[in-house]
Design goal:
With 207 residues, this protein is of the alpha+beta class. The protein has one domain: Alpha-ketoglutarate-dependent dioxygenase AlkB-like (Jelly Rolls), CATH 2.60.120.590. It has 3 helices and 13 strands. The strands form 3 sheets. A 7-stranded antiparallel beta sheet has the order 1-2-11-8-13-6-5. A 4-stranded antiparallel beta sheet has the order 7-12-9-10. The longest helix has 14 residues. The radius of gyration is 16 Å and the shape is globular. It starts with 11 loop residues before the first strand and ends in a 17-residue tail after the last strand. About 2% of the residues have low confidence.
């Protein structure tokens, strides 16, 4: 299984103990490229809304979403998705085969504290999060004592890498904010189990 290592001195090691290893790289993608990817994905992805059960009632998920498998990527996959995947795989040597996209339209959009469902990711492989657009704060909390809290401002072009163990011992989320903030797109790369032959590879992300 891959061992997460620092790539260069610009990175920050946010956690490194028996509960997991988390590395933040602020400038994996240069500013001009990140800006171009954001514009193309904002207009070129068929963003969808979702509803989920919460507190015994169905509510709107407070962000727009999309998803695509990369093993292989379907025809007409937006180039920034393929380019970002190649950049992340090259930097981490991890065979990511899926990406989930989230569009945060303003400070009212968010994602509640959570960890990934372990049955939906392959054991031992990390999660990689690329951010585009406006900076948003992610809060990472340990699930047991000592209950450490990590605040990290995810900048455009940054990479946050969380190893598998973190999904056992931490939650992560992007809270709402009343501060004026622009739109943000996140690309969450994961290694998921091999899909069934009948699974739809398009993922519903394309215009």
């Amino acid at each position: 299984m891959p061992q997460l290592k620092l790539f260069d001195s610009s990175e920050t090691l946010l956690a490194d103990d028996g509960r997991g290893r988390i590395i933040y790289t602020p400038h994996l993608i240069d500013a001009a490229t990140a800006e171009g990817w954001f514009a193309e994905l904002r207009s070129g992805v068929s963003w969808r809304t979702e509803r989920r059960m919460m507190y015994d009632r169905e509510v709107d998920v407070p962000r727009l979403m999309a998803h695509v498998r990369l093993d292989p990527a379907p025809p007409l996959t937006p180039a920034p998705i393929l380019d970002a995947a190649a950049r992340v795989v090259g930097a981490t040597a991890v065979p990511f085969n899926t990406v989930g996209l989230n569009l945060y339209r303003d400070g009212r959009d968010s994602v509640a504290p959570h960890h990934d469902h372990l049955n939906e990711i392959r054991q031992g492989f990390p999660i990689a999060l690329v951010s585009l657009g406006a900076t948003r704060r992610m809060i990472i909390r340990a699930s047991s004592h000592p209950r450490s809290v990590i605040n990290v401002d995810l900048e455009a072009g940054s990479l946050l890498l969380m190893d598998y163990a973190t999904q056992l011992h931490y939650t992560h989320g992007v809270p709402k904010t009343t501060e004026p903030v622009g739109e943000r797109i996140s690309l969450a790369f994961r290694v998921k189990p091999t899909r069934a032959p009948s699974e739809d590879s398009a993922g519903g992300v394309y215009r």
